Amino acid sequence: MKTYTFHVVGMHCRSCVVLTESELIEHPRVSSAKSTLVTRTVEVCGDFGDAPLASIAEELTGLLAKHGYSLSTEKQAETRNWADFKIAVPIALGFAALFVLLQKMGIVNLVNANNVSYGTAFVIGIIASLSTCMAVVGGLVLSMSATFAKEGDKVRPQLLFHIGRLASFFILGGVIGAIGSVFALNTAATFVLGLIISVVMLILGINLLDVFHGAKRFQPSLPKFFSKHALGITKLNHTVTPLLVGIATFFLPCGFTQSMQLYTLTTGTFLNGGLTMLAFALGTLPVLALISFSSFSIQKSAQAGIFFKAAGLVVIMFALFNLINSLVVIGLISPVFNF
Q1: Euclidean distance between CA atoms 98 and 54, whole angstroms
Q2: In a 3-state reduction of DSSP, which class is residue 193?
Q3: How far, in Å, CA of 242 to CA of 247, rounded?
Q4: What are 115-122's contacts with CB under 8 Å, separation 24+?
Q5: Which residue range(s) make up the domain with 42?
Q6: 122 and 250 fall within a common domain
Q7: Which DSSP string corresponds to 36-50?
Q8: CA angle 247–228–170, rounded 5-degree value
Q9: What gap in Å lies between CA 118 and CA 214, rounded to an integer?
């Protein structure tokens, strides 16, 4: 057995770490694989005889290509594409203006971190669907679609996936809300939780900009144990697999999903928690459905950089608004926004 180190092209979040490891370990010659997000590398332990490193990289890339990754023996130059901001900034400002308008109409709630409306959860879902996290979910959907399409079944698996995703987000979100009611969070605890959510979203937004690569190490995620088991379900070849994959997405290491899960703790009831997570899942539905039925991939799109940077700027605005207004709620600062 030898240990080989490869650079992973296309890695951008913790979901990528789990996904690349899970795929590479399936190779019969690989005994273990460990990916690192900060360096965007993977260490593979296996027996490939005297095969040259470049040949091994090409062979293993065959397992990852369907998810949009490839292995290289040389480090890829980091590109920041500042030019994308010329389009991303106006899009983000337009989105922010629309959001403020929706708040004035009472449809969403931007400035109260302790009371996220269902409309707000839906909008956050839309933003999340344009993020790198959902690009990974989209990759799983495309992979699953290709598998079932070979058997001539193109529509039913997609419907089962989305039904499973929506149902699990409502039920499991409700469970989290019910758990939160047991703890009966007071004002101080709610503030601390809101502060954590704001910081997590701020880190997510910065990472989506893809210009401060060191920030990726601070992005929180669920333990790999949950994520690997969730991804393991996608390996099953069974009629109900798409339904199980939809349910498993609740446990993938997507920061947006986890931020909403944290907030759901403060809702205090099964119904409110379930409806909040359902609204979030419905927000992600249009883009994921587009991916499902048209093989569209945000990550491979020519406008991917603009998508992610615009989404990142909007998320940063969300985080700062909620952070400032959390401080207002507990009286540390005077009101800043009066929309």
Answers
A1: 50
A2: helix
A3: 9
A4: 116/263, 116/276, 118/275, 118/276, 118/279, 119/279, 121/260, 121/276, 121/277, 121/279, 121/280, 121/283, 122/279, 122/280, 122/282, 122/283
A5: 2-72
A6: yes
A7: ETTTTEEEEEE--TT
A8: 20
A9: 33
pLDDT at residue 20 tops 60: yes
Q: What is the CATH number of the domain that holds 10?
A: 3.30.70.100
What SS3 class is residue 62? helix
Q: Which residues does residue 33 pair with via DSSP β-bridges, in sequence order?
A: 44
Cβ proximity of 255 and 12 under 8 Å: no
Give the residue carrying structure tokens 């629309």.
98
Q: What is the mean pLDDT of residues 163-167?
A: 93
**Number of Cβ atoms within 10 Å of the Cβ of 269:** 13
In this structure, which amino acid lies at residue 250? F
Q: What is the distance, to the nearest Å, from the Cα of residue 210 to the centroid of all Cα atoms in its chain?
A: 15
Residue 304 vs residues 296, 299, 301, 310: alpha-carbon distances, Å: 12, 6, 5, 10
pLDDT value of residue 111: 47
Q: Are residues 47 and 114 in the same domain?
A: no
Q: pLDDT grade, residue 337 (50/70/90)?
A: low
In tens, the pLDDT along 33-55 reads 999 888 889 999 999 988 999 99
Beta-carbon count within 10 A of 98 CB: 12
Task: Give the tokens for residue 230.
Answer: 């969730």
Same-domain check for residues 62 and 89:
no
Predicted structure pTM score: 0.66
Last residue of a domain, one of 16, 39, 72: 72
* Average pLDDT over every residue of 288-307: 68
> Alpha-carbon distance 292 to 304, whole Å?
18
CB of 107 closer than 8 Å to CB of 266:
no
The one-letter code for the residue type at 226 is F
Last residue of a domain, one of 50, 72, 94: 72
Q: Contacts from 91-97 at CB under 8 Å and sequence distance 24+?
A: 91/306, 91/310, 92/310, 92/313, 92/314, 92/317, 95/310, 95/314, 96/314, 96/317
Residue 335, domain member (yes or no): no
For residues 164 and 137, give the distance between their C-alpha atoms in angstroms, rounded to a whole number: 14
Do 324 and 176 belong to one domain? Answer: yes
Q: Which of 76, 124, 134 is nearest to 301 (CA)?
A: 134
